[in-house]
Write a structure and sequence with these properties.
Layout: H1 10-19, H2 28-35, E1 39-40, E2 45-46, H3 49-61, H4 73-91, E3 95-97, H5 99-104, H6 108-112, E4 120-124, E5 128-129, E6 145-146, H7 148-159, E7 163-167, H8 170-173, E8 184-189, H9 196-201, E9 205-206, H10 207-213, E10 219-223, H11 228-240, E11 253-257, H12 279-293, H13 302-318, E12 326-331, H14 335-338, H15 344-349, E13 355-360, H16 367-377, E14 381-384, H17 385-390, E15 406-409, E16 416-418, E17 425-428, H18 430-435, H19 440-454, H20 462-471, E18 475-478, H21 481-489, E19 494-501, E20 508-514, H22 516-540, E21 549-550, H23 556-561, E22 574-582, H24 587-594, E23 597-600, E24 607-615, H25 632-645, E25 654-657, H26 668-674, E26 681-686, E27 697-699, H27 702-710, H28 716-723
Parallel strand pairs: 4-7, 7-12, 8-9, 8-11, 10-11, 12-13, 13-14, 17-18, 18-21, 25-26
Antiparallel strand pairs: 1-2, 3-17, 5-6, 14-26, 15-16, 19-20, 22-24, 22-27, 23-24
Helix pairs in contact: 1-4, 3-4, 7-11, 7-13, 11-12, 12-13, 16-26, 19-22, 24-28
Length: 746
């Protein structure tokens, strides 16, 4: 804890509220109130926007390590001024930290859990040591490698609300030894537990009956405490007992007592939400044991490793955190991994829990099967590790080993990561920032300093602390890119294509032509981020960041300011956005009174679907393009532009293609190959255009939009304030921090 704390005064905040009007998008305030406004028990209400921003900025600015040791008056003045600038920047919605920071920064949970400010992580699935971490199984030497460790890391981070990318490439899975033991597992529960009957139905055993039939001398007994760590340790013990090197007792019977785990619906303090009860855990432990028992005297496969991670993810989804984002990275020649989702029974049971990608290098040329998989399943995505290890921005050229420890990526693909490393994000909305009078270089410099401070959090896992302190990786992103470029240039960044020849194989290609002013715009902002990092790193006496910039997919955060999501084009110029609310959500009466159309959700009971008519910025411009009209070639070219001139990490992009009468599917493989030396990661999905019933997004025409918008008669924020003197906490139903729904917001 810092000895001196920086605080924003009420007088300063009042002055900003008088001067600055938040740039709420049409969905902005509603999205904020139900997603990021924390409950204030002492005031019996949820936060207001200025209170959220104050909490977030103070939580971040006080991570500056100079505050720990009698800081000078100069440092205090510097940081106070910076906190004020950040407050003004974020309050006006010219920029925001990640959704994770909006929810966690400045809370007691942040102080207790060092990992809580980072959205997503990466771990390699191979035996690793626990080291000096907050979770270490008692039966292990902390320096001993254990098969359980990466699964424990993944389980722990998912339960803290993070997403996890994991690697089951051949060289990782090959390091896992043969399975030595078939473990006899009993999950037991006392009759006094409120979850007794429900747990028996999913495979648990009555504790009294088990005690009558079992000899304690030949069994490992572990009573799970009612904590996140208890769940992780139970799973670790189960996995490690299968291997002689991590089974010091040489026993093959395991009893896991779940009697003390809180029941379904009980309140979870700290991170928020309600408990799932022990039932999902019972199912997970039994399923994981079956996966490993099936490999006795042989080795686990990449599919097995993915299944274990997916079973863990499924359990977390059923618990406190609504979304559990995973990305599985496998070898490009492992057909069992590539085809594992074709097993529909296992897909519906647990394999839905990860998006799957394959690791490639720039010499890879077999894109046909990948394109075929994308057409049929929307997978796999691709991750080019060679590019990530040897390039920052593509324009800066080949730099051998500049990021040599990279092994994978976060679930959305915008940050290439080393083993145990997290992404660390902040995004600026340049279109909004310019409207509010910001010097963009100053805004992006503030973003760099914000993310740099996050690297000084007290991280829970040794493997993370070491790589974070070495790399100090940051990810300053921009969102609303299409709005900004169209506003400043009058047209899109790709102005055309010219005939060219691939220098390696002589094939004819269409090379994109970029607006030269756009190149200068993003290049100058990149330099501003790098310069800010260099200056601040010197002040703090730490390593400069190994990489600095990215484009995250955005999603919920972009909705706050009403801008296009990340690099993506608006889904349509005019559309109906449907958002699901729990039937008891206190926002619903205000929405109905204001004139928004509501109806029962046809997919989920006790859920209400609300329709919001939206108009994209510049929807009527002759140069406006949407995901439904822009070509697959231009989307690839736009991602390549940002990877070349802006992002030294990667660019998250879900490219949409038309699979109807204007079939673009035959272009997928050639375009993946054309950009093999530029694009570090990408994924593709067909454009559905709202054809599904109650689709999240449904394109409409201008006349329909105007008719629907005319029905909205009041401001939701004002009506809600009048209706809710005695609010109840708002709970997220169907939002995500990312456009494709990959990353959790909390």
């Amino acid at each position: 804890m810092p000895t001196t704390r920086i605080k924003l005064s009420p007088a300063f905040i009042d002055s900003v509220k008088q001067e600055v009007k938040p740039h709420w998008g049409e969905l902005g305030w509603v999205t904020y109130k139900r997603t990021y406004a924390r409950w204030l028990p002492d005031q019996n209400r949820a936060e207001n926007w200025d209170e959220t921003v104050k909490r977030v900025i103070e939580g971040n600015i006080n991570l500056d390590p100079r505050l720990h040791d009698n800081p000078s008056a100069e440092v205090i003045t510097e940081l106070t001024n910076e906190a004020q600038k950040l407050f003004r920047l974020v309050y006006g919605l010219a920029a925001t930290p990640s959704g994770r920071n909006l929810w966690i920064s400045g809370t007691d949970y942040q102080k207790r859990n060092g990992d809580s400010l980072n959205n997503c992580w990466f771990i390699a699935i191979r035996p690793q040591k626990y080291g000096d971490s907050h979770i270490v199984p008692a039966y292990l030497n902390p320096e001993q490698k254990a098969v359980s460790m990466p699964f424990s890391f993944l389980f722990d981070q998912l339960m803290k609300g993070g997403g996890v990318g994991f690697s089951v490439v051949n060289e990782n899975i090959a390091q896992i030894p043969s399975v030595d033991n078939k473990v006899d597992l009993a999950v037991i529960i006392d009759k006094k537990s409120p979850s007794y009957e429900a747990s028996l139905k999913v495979g648990a055993i009555d504790k009294d009956e088990w005690e009558k039939q079992s000899a304690p001398d030949d069994t490992i007994y572990y009573k799970l405490p009612d904590t996140r760590e208890g769940w992780v340790l139970a799973n670790a013990r189960l996995i490690d007992m299968h291997f002689n090197a991590t089974n010091p007792d040489h026993k093959i019977k395991l009893a896991l007592d779940i009697s003390d785990i809180r029941p379904y619906g009980a309140k979870i303090h700290g991170f928020g939400g309600t408990a799932s009860g022990p039932m999902p855990l019972v199912e997970m432990l039994i399923d994981i044991n079956n996966v490993i028992n099936a490999r006795v005297n042989s080795k686990l496969t990449a599919v097995d490793g993915t299944d274990i991670c997916n079973l863990i993810g499924k359990t977390v989804v059923a618990g406190n955190v609504r979304r559990s984002a995973e990305l599985a990275l496998g070898s490009s020649d492992n057909q069992d991994f590539i085809k594992m989702k074709q097993d529909k029974e296992k897909l519906y049971h647990h394999r839905w829990a990860s998006n799957n990608s394959v690791a490639i290098n720039s010499k890879f040329n077999n894109y046909g099967p990948i394109a075929d998989g994308i057409l049929h399943n929307g997978e796999p995505g691709i991750v080019n590790l060679d590019l990530s290890r040897n390039y920052g921005r593509i324009v800066d050229g080949y730099q051998a080993g500049i990021d040599d420890s990279v092994e994978g990526t976060n679930p959305c693909g915008e940050i290439s990561l080393a083993n145990g490393e997290p992404c660390n994000l902040f995004e600026v909305f340049p279109y909004v920032a310019e409207q509010e009078g910001w010097d963009l270089k100053e805004a992006f410099g503030l973003a760099a300093r914000y993310t740099k401070r996050v690297t000084f959090s007290p991280y829970d896992w040794e493997i993370s602390r070491e790589i974070i302190h070495k790399n100090r990786r940051i990810g300053v992103s921009m969102s609303g890119i299409q709005d900004w470029l169209l506003n400043d240039l009058g047209h899109r960044v790709v102005t055309g294509f010219e005939d060219a020849v691939d220098q390696e194989n002589g094939q004819k290609i269409k090379k994109p032509i970029y607006d030269p002013q756009a190149v200068k715009m993003v290049d100058s902002l990149y330099q501003a981020v790098v310069d800010a990092d260099k200056t601040y790193s010197k002040e703090l006496g730490c390593n400069e960041s190994i990489k600095h910039t990215t484009v995250k997919p955005s999603g919920t955060v972009a909705k706050l300011a009403g801008v296009s999501e990340g690099m993506h084009f608006h889904y349509a110029g005019y559309l109906i956005q449907r958002i699901r609310f729990q039937a008891s959500d206190p926002l619903l009466p205000a929405l109905k009174e204001c004139g928004y159309h509501t109806e029962p959700d046809i997919y989920t009971p006790n859920t209400i679907c609300v329709e919001f008519p939206l108009r994209a910025a510049h929807a009527d411009s002759k140069n406006f393009a949407s995901a439904g009209t822009v070509s697959i070639a231009e989307q690839f070219a736009t991602q390549a532009f940002l990877q070349t001139y802006w992002s030294d990490n990667a660019v998250s992009c879900t490219i949409t293609f038309q699979s109807d009468e204007s079939d673009e599917s035959d272009q997928i493989a050639p375009l993946l190959y054309q950009y093999r030396h530029i694009i570090k990661s990408t994924s593709l999905l067909p454009y559905y255009g709202g054809s599904l019933k109650q689709a999240p997004k449904e394109p409409i025409d201008k006349q329909t939009y105007e008719a629907r918008a005319a029905l909205i008669t009041d401001d939701v924020e004002e009506v809600f304030a009048k209706q809710n003197d005695d609010q109840k906490g708002l709970e997220l139903v169907d939002q995500s921090d990312c456009a494709g729904g990959a990353c959790p917001i909390k």
